[in-house]
Amino acid sequence: xxxxxxxxxxxxxxxxxxxxxxxxxxxxxxxxxxxxxxxxxxxxxxxxxxxxxxxxxxxxxxxxxxxxxxxxxxxxxxxxxxxxxxxxxxxxxxxxxxxxxxxxxxxxxxxxxxxxxxxxxxxxxxxxxxxxxxxxxxxxxxxxxxxxxxxxxxxxxxxxxxxxxxxxxxxxxxxxxxxxxxxxxxxxxxxxxxxxxxxxxxx
Amino acid sequence: xxxxxxxxxxxxxxxxxxxxxxxxxxxxxxxxxxxxxxxxxxxxxxxxxxxxxxxxxxxxxxxxxxxxxxxxxxxxxxxxxxxxxxxxxxxxxxxxxxxxxxxxxxxxxxxxxxxxxxxxxxxxxxxxxxxxxxxxxxxxxxxxxxxxxxxxxxxxxxxxxxxxxxxxxxxxxxxxxxxxxxxxxxxxxxx
Lengths: 203, 191
Prior knowledge:
The complex is a heterodimer of chains A (203) and B (191). Chain A is mainly alpha-helical and 203 residues long. Chain A has a two-stranded antiparallel sheet. In chain A, helix 4 (89-116) packs parallel to helix 6 (144-158), helix 6 (144-158) runs parallel beside helix 8 and helix 7 packs antiparallel against helix 8 (186-199). Chain A starts with a helix and ends with a helix. In chain A, 24% of the residues are buried. Chain A is elongated, with a radius of gyration of 27 Å. In chain A, strand 1 (28-33) and strand 2 form a beta hairpin. Chain A is built from eight helices and two strands. Chain B is of the alpha+beta class. Chain B is built from five helices and six strands. In chain B, strands 1, 2, 3, 4, 5 and 6 form a six-stranded antiparallel beta sheet that branches. Chain B is globular. At the A-B interface, helix 1, strand 1 and strand 2 of A face strand 3 and helix 5 of B. Strand 1 (28-33) of chain A pairs antiparallel with strand 3 (43-58) of chain B, so a sheet runs across the interface.
């Protein structure tokens, strides 16, 4: 209503001769002010634009694919590894299959998330980073192609806006293990070292 | 692209995503109009007594008819179906809030909390984005009233469509005139 607006912009300067408000509240609400009494009703920028998480396509995507598939495969992989590495050649093939599909899925997932999403979800990146580090620790089960893919995943995170995730203590320890491991493949150590340098802002 | 080619060089453009899957009101597209007042005291006021504007025809992404996609009253009033569903193609927030509760019975929809708060975010963001260019001559005691148009999609996400200076948003029909701040004359006198 025009009376509400005049009440704010004109009445303080030129008080009206008559009272037309009759005690009625002003429908203009102060939502932001840089005056003596600052007001800011802006929600935190981390608040989701979707008011209901169940309708957030990003959330539902995580629940369905490809992360659910990766998580399932990783769990299967862990169980197989726990059963012992001295398994038969046939068993090693199974390990390889799960590893290979996991590495590819992780890389694709990371690539899509870091390049095509308007908002980077640190939980998604952190989860995939943990998986990459876990997989690289067992590099003997991977082919050269997939070692390269895992290293690329690592560098993808290091070069992204989400590289602050690397400062997580668990991740730093895992990287240190990769670098210091005596039998670790040179390519993996190199990727880990580069990532550490990037983390420190040296390159 | 032909439209782009016909424009002069070094002109400004806004490229805006088209929201393909808007929330529909009984099968038709709608948008929301609210108001914001900026003052020279670096204050931003939100006028929450907004209204919704509906289109006249059922929504279909493949249908290229503007009367399906554009809810502006200045366009809709010339359509054959204008006023067929709602007087002046205009409805109050109360109707919208009731509709949403019925459309999403499993969600505890609070119109103020889930939608108005998002609109306020956009108003503050737009103010912050342009506050340095407002009032360039540093005049005292100035203000400006803006009309904000929003759209809600089927995931209940609020989108800002456009911001209009008040000069362009005076009452366009009797129903919307009930809500628009400048469409009523004040009964107060000052001298």
